[in-house]
Amino acid sequence: MSCPTLQYCNAKDYNVKRHETDQRLPTAIVSRFRNGGQHVPASALNIAYNAALQAATAALAASGYRVARERHHYRTIQSVAYTLGWTAKQINQFDRLCKKRNIGGYETAGQISGQEAWEMLQLAEHLRDEVSAWLSVKHPALLKN
After folding, report:
1. Most C-beta atoms within 10 A of its C-beta, which of 20, 74, 76, 92?
2. Are 55 and 25 a contacting pair, CB within 8 Å?
3. Is the pLDDT of residue 76 over 50?
4. Alpha helices in 1-145 (DSSP H)
5. Against a cut of 0.85, is the pTM above it?
6. Hey, how many other C-beta atoms are within 10 angstroms of the C-beta on 90?
7. 3-state secondary structure of 65
């Protein structure tokens, strides 16, 4: 099930503040991971996933919304289609890696490959860069000078 609108995703009106947007862009997290902070694949995927989720949350907040607690990861991932115009293929990749993270973190250890961790890192970097560029065009007042 996808969200046809941000409201359908259970996104609520929200007035974002500049420092919140800056804090949510996971530049330091992704950079630390890329620059030698290698971990076991499950940890690496989790770090990159959290960075991507924060970037998606920043875009949602800049758009004037935040999701309710119930299924908030799912709804935040779905919202990227509306904030940044991501395709169903991109959303499905993000969602698939989210599910993989959940299996590795909550159900069965050792189920995440280095390739999947790398795929999540690449997605997180792409999303971070896209959110940064989008903010500079659509919401420049929310970025640090």
Report:
1. 76
2. yes
3. yes
4. 18-24, 27-34, 41-62, 72-83, 88-102, 114-138
5. no
6. 18
7. strand
